[in-house]
Amino acid sequence: MGTIISPSVLSADFSNLERDVKLLNESNADWIHIDIMDGQFVPNISFGLPVMKAIHTHAQKPLDVHLMIATPDDYLEDFKNAGAEILTVHYEACPHLHRTLQRIKTLGMKTGVALNPHTPIDLLKNIIQDIDLVLIMSVNPGFGGQKFIPETLNKVRELKTLINNSGSSTLIEIDGGVNLETGKKLVDAGADALVAGSFVFGSDNPKETITQLSTL
User: Fold this and answer.
1) Which residue in 123, 169, 189, 214 is a FRET match for 2, CA 20 to 30 A apart?
2) Per-residue pLDDT tens for 96-128?
3) Which residues pair with 66 in a beta bridge?
4) Domain holding 14: CATH number?
5) Which residues are catalytic?
6) What's the pLDDT score for residue 145?
7) How far apart are CA 1 and CA 17, in angstroms?
8) Which parts of the chain register pLDDT below 70?
9) Binding site for substrate, residues?
10) 118 Cβ contact partners less than 8 Å away, ≥ 6 residues apart
11) 0.90 exceeded by pTM
12) Domain tally for the chain?
């Protein structure tokens, strides 16, 4: 299986979201990445449930939803109802992470845990079996188009070792500064899935760019 590609609609044309979602439907993208920001957990606001529901209406790929919000536990069922198939919460925002993950599973979604650049991998060692996907932030969350943090590669290697040693089937996803160069390094380090926003939607041929990323 090739690299899983989850283009982020944060970099899409918000005045033409239906068009851009249909473009992703017709591409080799595996998932559609939805960044939800509340202006509290991160210093930016993206869009919320009504826009996500509209995206879900047109999407033919699984919605890979990344909650960058201060109180994710208050909205888990809402995002399930809005169409999330993978729901990723931040380690830093969940004081009772195991409980949060169990609730996500009970609602019928895949569980994801995101780690900010400063958050160490070993904090997941006692819970890795309960996580379907770990999203490593390779930029500080909140804005698209940022420069890739090189230390991410070491975190990917460390996480891959933890996953292998635990016998879990957790996937490793990376978000931030992904392009063909950084993407290749990340896949070589052990990443399974790549989120790409500005690199895809800012290219001359987004579909071809997605295909190139998927073959890394």
Assistant:
1) 123
2) 999 999 999 999 999 999 999 999 999 999 999
3) 35, 88
4) 3.20.20.70
5) 35, 175
6) 67
7) 29
8) 1, 143-145
9) 8, 66, 142-145, 175-177, 197-198
10) none
11) yes
12) 1
